[in-house]
Amino acid sequence: MTLPKNYQAQQNVLKEKVILISGGGSGIGKSAGLIFAEHGADLILVGKNPAHLESTYQEFLDKNLKPPLLHIMDLEKSNENDFQEINTVIEKEFGKLDGLLNNAGILGDKTPLENYKIDVWKKVFDINVHASFLLTKSLLPVLKAAENSSIIFTSSAVGKRGKAYWGAYSLSKFATESMMQIFSEELENTSNVRVNSIDPGRVRTKMRAAAYPAEDPLSLLEAKDIMNAYLYLMSNDSLETKGESISAQ
């Protein structure tokens, strides 16, 4: 699915919405947090690197935006209780959650499957799949407490058609697409929670640079240039969009 033609979000389209972003300290997660705040949302940023989160926090202040809540968490090593604790904090602080962006992810190795290291394989699935599952599952109580809420998973072109040497990353994105579809069907008729995914496409990020080291980064869009798709899915403009995979470009 592509974004509605000429879509333009209204300035206060996310007013009074509470949104959590995993991997919120840099890259696409950071850009999403800033644009959501500019459109009225309260933000909770989850990340592993304190320095990245603190730098992003300062950027919120520099832009005169309401500062986000920061939650330092190693998604690879966290257990289910750690994820449930986030739900408890949000319930106490806000009473609801209007949006969840499952953005955190790692590339792993680009190598043939027959050479893939099992420790790297497990790490990719722990962060890209298991953490997204546990975060979504744990936050469903506060997501259901909102009038309507949106869950966004992060997809990829290699999660729709396998590509040589993309190994665990590609397979993790196939799993992510399937997880999105299953959550969407299970929640569609039993709650006010809608579930979709976004394929960011070719974006100037550290992950992209690691995947394509010879590529000219100036030939790519910046993360801030693809935010229309994220605004659309987080806003009430997408209330009827469910179980879809949207291309941000």
Overview of the structural elements:
With 249 residues, the protein is an alpha/beta fold. It has one domain: 3-Layer(aba) Sandwich (Rossmann fold). It is 41% helix and 14% strand. It has seven helices and seven strands. Helix 3 (80-93) packs parallel to helix 4. It is globular, with a radius of gyration of 17 Å. The termini are close together. The model has no long low-confidence stretch (mean pLDDT 94).
Structural class: alpha/beta
- According to CATH, the homologous superfamily is NAD(P)-binding Rossmann-like Domain
Query: How much helical structure, as a percent, in the residues?
Result: 40-55%
Poorly predicted residue ranges:
none
* H and E order: EHEHEHEHEHEHHE
State the CATH topology. Answer: Rossmann fold
How would you state the average pLDDT, rounded?
94
Number of helices: 7
Strand order of the largest sheet: 3-2-1-4-5-6-7
Task: Supply Rg.
Answer: 17 Å
The biggest beta sheet reads: 7 strands, parallel
Give the tally of β-strands.
7
Question: Regarding CATH, which class?
Answer: Alpha Beta
